[in-house]
Amino acid sequence: MYSKLKPFGILSLLLLMAFYSLQEIPLVYPTYFPKPVYDFKTNPLKRAKVELGRKLFYDPILSRNNSISCSSCHNSNQAFSHAGNSLSKGIEGGIGDRNSPAIFNLAWQKKFMWDGSVVNIDVQALAPINHPKEMGEDINAVVRKLNKSKEYKTLFYRSFGDSLATTERVMKALSQFQLTIVSANSKYDKVKQGKAKFTEAEANGYQLFKNNCSSCHTEPLFSSYEFANNGLPINPELKDYGKWNKTMEPEDKLMFKIPSLRNLSYTYPYMHDGRFQTLNEVLEHYEKGIEKSPTLAKELQNPIVFTANEKEELLSFLKTLNDSVMVSNHEYQKIKK
């Protein structure tokens, strides 16, 4: 009797697995976060697609010589940044044009890259894949490689109902995984939830932050994700003018995307070209290094000066934005076979 029923048990298990894979999953974030700007109606989160995106994110098959993956420049243990590297590093020793930005809380961002040249996360991965010094590959070649893989044929079937890999499906799977990377488990978040309290130094630093930094680094994401000229002198080697490099509009000169202040301990060096190795250097820039120009942010027309003690208190607060839970979350790390 058992042997006759066994095939039906296997079928039931397969159906259950298919249901589990195609099940929509919610984006989990705190109640004090704003509503995400990403339209999940166009690409609802589904477990199978997230897992496919996770697999692709860690797979060097996306690069021309199969040596560089997305994770090479966005390390989960470094808040998905490339800590210690001023500029991104690519295939065959290639050096990119800018510092690799940390990728978390992407569902709240409308534009991507330091210059905002990508306006949809569902196509963002095309930029590094096609960049000659980063992954150096053509997306059509990537798709051909994926369609030759039995493993990926199975994963695409589970995600999309047939085994064919396409550019659109690759991009959407990658964005699905990246959208699930949410940083909301720092000490700051625990304080917001009434589960912890700031020390005296952290509380004083929080007040200094609100008085001097919050207009650009807006709570609770700690960025407005808008663009600003923060007074950095031009790097003579890179000659990077931010948005102006793409638009050539005067008002875009030296305008770069404002990064989040979350996870700063994991994401050094700082700025679009990684010129500052420490946060003390960053604070020194805002006190002594601001270069005036027509597009300089109005908040920086005057230097931001802190006493030595205030600097320590501000840095104490900024440490409360580090999310050790996120950087150690196994769901964000490479799938172990």
Automatic annotation (TrEMBL):
Names of required cofactors: heme
> Mind listing the GO molecular function terms for this protein?
cytochrome-c peroxidase activity; electron transfer activity; heme binding; metal ion binding
What is known about its processing and modification? Binds 2 heme groups per subunit.
Record note on cofactor: Binds 2 heme groups.
One short Pfam name that applies is: CCP_MauG
What is the protein's given name?
A: Cytochrome c peroxidase
Q: Where do the Cytochrome c domain residues begin and end?
A: 48-150, 200-322
Q: What's a GO cellular component annotated to this UniProt protein?
A: periplasmic space
Entry binding sites for heme c 1: 70, 73-74
Taxon lineage:
Bacteria, Pseudomonadati, Bacteroidota, Flavobacteriia, Flavobacteriales
Binding annotation for heme c 2:
213, 216-217
Intracellular or extracellular location(s)? Periplasm
Q: Does the keyword Iron apply?
A: yes
**Which InterPro entries does its entry note?**
Cyt_c-like_dom (IPR009056), Cyt_c-like_dom_sf (IPR036909), Cytochrome_c_Peroxidase/MauG (IPR051395), Di-haem_cyt_c_peroxidsae (IPR004852), MauG/Cytc_peroxidase (IPR026259)
List the source organism.
Chryseobacterium limigenitum
Keyword vocabulary terms for this entry: Heme, Iron, Metal-binding, Oxidoreductase, Periplasm, Peroxidase, Signal
